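User:
Care to share a sequence and structure tokens?

Assistant:
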Amino acid sequence: MAFKRAKLKTAIGISLLYLALAAHVGSPDAWYEGNAGPYKVTVQVQMPGVVPGVAQVFVRVPGERPDRVTIVANKFDATGGAPPPEEATPVEGDPGLYSGKLWLMSGGSNSITVDVSGSRGSGKAVVPVVNVPLRRLDLDPRLGIGLSVVGVFLFAGLVTIIGAAVREGSLPPGEAPPPANRARARRASLGTSVALAVILFGGWKWWNSEDSSFRENIFRPLASKAIVVAASPQPRFVFSIVDSAWVHRGDTAWLRKHDANSWTPLIPDHGKLMHLFLVRDDLEAFAHLHPSSLDSVVFPSALPPLPAGSYRVYADIVHESGYAQTMVASVALGSPSAASSASASDPDDSWFAAPVQRGARSVTLADGSVMTWKAGKNPIAAGRDAELRFEVRNADGTPATLEPYMGMAGHAVVARDDGSVFVHLHPSGTVPMASQMAFEMRQPGDTVRGKLGGRISAAEHAMMSGPLPAMSEVGFPYAFPKPGNYRVWVQVRKTGRILTGAFDVPVVSGVKSAD
């Protein structure tokens, strides 16, 4: 599924985005795969990276072609009616793919609602997105030179016109202006020049002030830190949010004085308040932890027996508004404690540190079963469907039966070798379950903080307690944002045990299809 054909590529390159992004790191697009009523849909939203800005939305509806596909954007706390929906038009040469553009006028937690209608009826899918300013667009030097030339011409023209009007405006045609008129004209030209200079200087100061304010408001994830605390019998890993806007979020006086953003409370996503990942710089070790917290500021967990080295730390959280973000830190680990004494703080914690065979499409898991990446023959290209579909078979070759792992058939983590890209994937895409529920379950009366979050937690718990359909395969909709070397960790649960398969993924900038 090639969502980004050459003629539909964004004008702004992914490489221009800042390292820290709202919901993930270096991977700005939102992906969703699920149902819109009776229709299966895959939705990709290319975020603008500026506020306000235009988002490009792609909707794939496989199978029977629907009569109509519409898209509409709305803010989480909008009090007025939603704008009228926009038509998503078919993409020429790609049956089942529709595209459209939407203005996202407000920053923060937003949603894209996709409505599909046809012979099987109609249905909707809500895709939460985080719209934040990620970059400052620089003025093209050539445009700047052109505007400067035009500005000088207009400045000189206005001064000349006013001087001529004062000098000759009251004289009959053809009469030479007297010295007094010439003197008044010089004074008028000088006064006009001074006035225009003051206006331009004021405009320049105002523009610099606006630019400085914009720079300060470019999105940055909540400041955080990670440390290891020596403890017996097992060291503790402690992740803390140290950002003043979060630490003082309940202090009304402090918020009023500092004009800080008062964040909505955290809510569990897939039953966990935080999904925390440790990735060694060389990608040779990985951990997926779920620390506890009493105050939503300090998040401790048992440190798994990871090999020594420098680790990048990524922490996914979801706010009650549906706003999701990934905080970034780093930590250096010394020699691990004895593996035999290691225990997890949470039953869904897992870690992986084993050799990865480069280029392998099948890997043997810890229980002897085999995970196979069912990718096509073409190289993986940036901006195109990565075909992240995996099959698990038992050691005897029979299809395995996957069990729910935090309510899903599996979880996947994608990381680029330089740390510039990190994303936590689900079979439903990059969209957190809790974020989607925040939009689907919100009611007009949900103005008290924590009220909606309580309902979301209860509904999420009920969904996660249900069984999965019998399956041995799991897939993750995604496209790698830029070329480079990546590693993908795929996690599933089988016979009560969390199993991790790791695959190296070289991503190229563009390829021709194989014959």
Summary: Residues 141-217 form one domain. The two ends are 17 Å apart (CA to CA). The chain is about 20% helix and 30% strand. The chain has three domains: 6-131, 141-217, 224-508.
